[in-house]
Structure formats: structure tokens, C-alpha cells
Amino acid sequence: MAGFWLTAPLALMMEPKGKKELSATTATSVPALALADLSGNVAPDVARFLELGLEGAENTRLAYATDLVTFEAYCLTHQLTPYPAAVTTLAGYVAHLANLPRKLATITRHLAAIQKKHQMLGLPSAVGSPSLDVVLKGVARVVGKRQKQAPAFSVTDLKSAIKALDLETAAGIRDRALLLLGFAGAFRRSELVALDLEQIELTDAALVLHMAKSKTNQTGEVEDKAVFYAGNPLFCPVRAFQDWHRLLGRTSGPVFVSLVRGKKAGEAVPTTKRLSDVRVNRLVKLHLGKKYSAHSLRASFITTAKLNGQSNEFIKNQTKQKTDVMISRYSRLGDVIKYNAAYSLGL
Length: 347
Fold this sequence. Notes:
This protein has 14 helices and five strands. By secondary structure, the protein is mostly helical.
């Protein structure tokens, strides 16, 4: 998806697409904004890093690509110029999305994609202008600000799901490791999918996972997660991983993979094909309930940790989130009956 950021608006221009590589990049392929910042002269070895520096996480690029197609189609239909887009164009587009209707978070993401495309093209953007902000405030009053969030499950819910697994089967062994590691490691779905055996180190104290890249770590600097032993072997994420690792029978490659039928009836054996994001999501729903998603693994870790009195710093050490605001956003403590300081008034 690296090539998408530099593609032109629909029906306006065409540029060749290419995979993101660390080979020499010509100065003409670098966004005009970056060129302007460096007085229009960029050496090939500088150009490639400028291009990479303006890119974001893979899932973000995928979402933005879809949003831009929608925006450009809107402009084509209404005979408007998408780049640079006038504030009146953006206001009309926001109103169009709100009337469909789309959630405020979705509309905000569309605007972020449009702003990023302007940045990549070296064009001024009206996103963030005072008049557009007024329109967004009006939209917020109509569509509301509350996002539909993946709910958090309790540790009791998780234990019940683990107990229900058939640990005599490969699927049961894999899914136990997936659920326990996903929860104890506060993993994003994309991180579980991308996890390789080479990233995992077993120590006497914990299972240490060396994460090279994530949504909040685009520089590739290694960040560590630690998953600890539990008193009950059935619910121990470290032992669950060890059981699954033995079944994999290898020391490299993806951790969570699909299964194929074995030689005997009812038998299944691991492949080397990674589980997809969609498959991981379906497994969480299968074992924990339809209202949950893979995102619930991370939200449940944060919620449980907060309820257990853990500090934001300790939580961020595992989640790798950068701000306390994100901790608050992910903790599912909005139930005014279950989670309320009024309980402790002593009346």
C-alpha cells in the first residue's frame, strides 16, 4: 500500500504504483511538500526516508485509501476539485457523510485521509479551518460523539471460555494460547496476526515478546511485552503458549496459524499460514460471545488492570500506549452502577 499515498485523484492523473522498498528513490517521486521543505533539492537516499516518514500504519493506509476513493467519487459527481479542496467542498462532503448517516469518528477519519493526501501532494489543506470546525461541531450535536466500542469481558468470562475448549484438539490448544496471550499481553489483533516465534523469549520469570513494529511504533524500535506465569496451569498464558509451541513443532515462522485435517478423523494439524485479522476476530466471538471482538482482548486487559488498581504507567508498559487519554478511552468503566465512587461514601 506504500504506493497509494502518491497516487493522484481519480480521473486527474495516473502515476505508477510500486512496493515500498529501501532502494533509491528519485526526487520527483517525493511529495512536493517535502521537496519544498528542502528547497526542492533532495538526494535519492534522502528522498526514500522522506517518503517513508510521511506514511502511517498499514491498517490506517487501507482505511484512508477507501475513504479517498469515496471522497474523489463525491467530487467527480458534483464536479468539484478534490485537490486542493475548498472549505466549501469539504463542508459539503461532511454534510453528505452525516446525512447518510456516518458516525462522527468515521467522518473525522475521512477528513484525516483528505488532509494526509494534501500533505503528500504538497497542497494546502482546509481541514482544521475554523469554519469547517463549526460544521463538525454541528454534526457532533446531531450524530453524537459516542463511538461503538468493543466491550470488555471479565476474567471470569475468560476462564469460562477456556474451560469450554477441547484441549485434546489442535484447535482448542491454539485458541487457548490465542485468548490468554491476547489478553495477558494486551495485544492488538494485528500484532497477534504478525507475531513470529523468533520474537518470543522464554525466561524463568516470564515470556518476553520482542515487538519490532506496531500501530504506535512505526519506527521499528523493538518494544517488549512480558506475559507472566499464572498459578493455575489451565489459565496460564505461558504454559498455553508452550503447549501450542510443542504442537507447532518448529522454532521460526508465524505463531498463530490455520489448521488442516490430519490423517485420522477429527484430527487437525497446524499449517504455516497465518490466521487473518478476520479469523482472529471470529475466534474471539466464537469463544467469548458475539458481542465481543478481538479488540476486546486489549480493552479487557486495560479495564481489568484499572479495576485492580494498576497505575497508568504500569498499564502503558504493556500496552505501549503513549498517553493517559488513551488508557481512559480503552477502559470500559462507563457503567454507572457497576463502577461508581458513590459506593464508597459510607452512608
